[in-house]
Amino acid sequence: MCLAGFTAACSGQGPADGTLIGHLYGVGGPAPGLPRSWPGTVTLTGPGVHRDVSVDANGSYSVMVPAGRYTVVGHSPLYDSGAALCQAGRVATVISGHTTKADVLCQMS
């Protein structure tokens, strides 16, 4: 079992793998507009990887991937019925043996 933030304890970890973690949030909307964890899926695209990952009940995800740069986007049924694309704020750079965080935001108006 792999736990976010404890990559050294994960058996089966490749020598060039790192962990990508984050949340799928709805942000904005009526005041105070604080982030809300949402259900849905995030999609990772990077070196030889195009992978859909389901988020858990708290809106979080954790996945081991090869080191490299990843674009992370998401969809939630709570955001335009799942049709609109939610974005991470930046490209995530995963480093071997480390944990990188990339939250995906669904911007409400």
Could you provide a short overview of the structure?
The chain is mainly β. Helices cover 0% and strands 50% of the residues.
Mean pLDDT: 87
Alpha-beta classification: mainly beta
Query: What is the terminal-to-terminal distance?
Result: 39 Å
Radius of gyration: 14 Å
Amount of beta strand: over 45%
Query: Spans of 5+ residues with little confidence (pLDDT < 50)?
Result: 1-11
Tell me the number of strands. Answer: 10
Helix content: under 10%
Order of helices and strands: EEEEEEEEEE
Q: Helical stretch count?
A: 0
What does this structure look like?
With 109 residues, the protein is an all-beta fold. Helix content is 0%, strand content 50%. It has no helices and ten strands. The protein has strands spanning 17-28, 36-37, 41-46, 49-54, 60-66, 68-75, 86-88, 92-94, 99-101, 104-108. Strands 1, 2, 3, 4, 5, 6, 7, 8, 9 and 10 form a ten-stranded mixed sheet that branches. A hairpin with a 2-residue loop joins strand 3 (41-46) and strand 4.
List the helices and strands and how they pair.
Layout: E1 17-28, E2 36-37, E3 41-46, E4 49-54, E5 60-66, E6 68-75, E7 86-88, E8 92-94, E9 99-101, E10 104-108
Parallel strand pairs: 1-9, 1-10
Antiparallel strand pairs: 1-2, 1-5, 3-4, 3-6, 6-7, 6-8, 7-10
List keywords for this structure.
109 residues, 0% helix, mainly beta, disordered N terminus, single chain, 10 strands
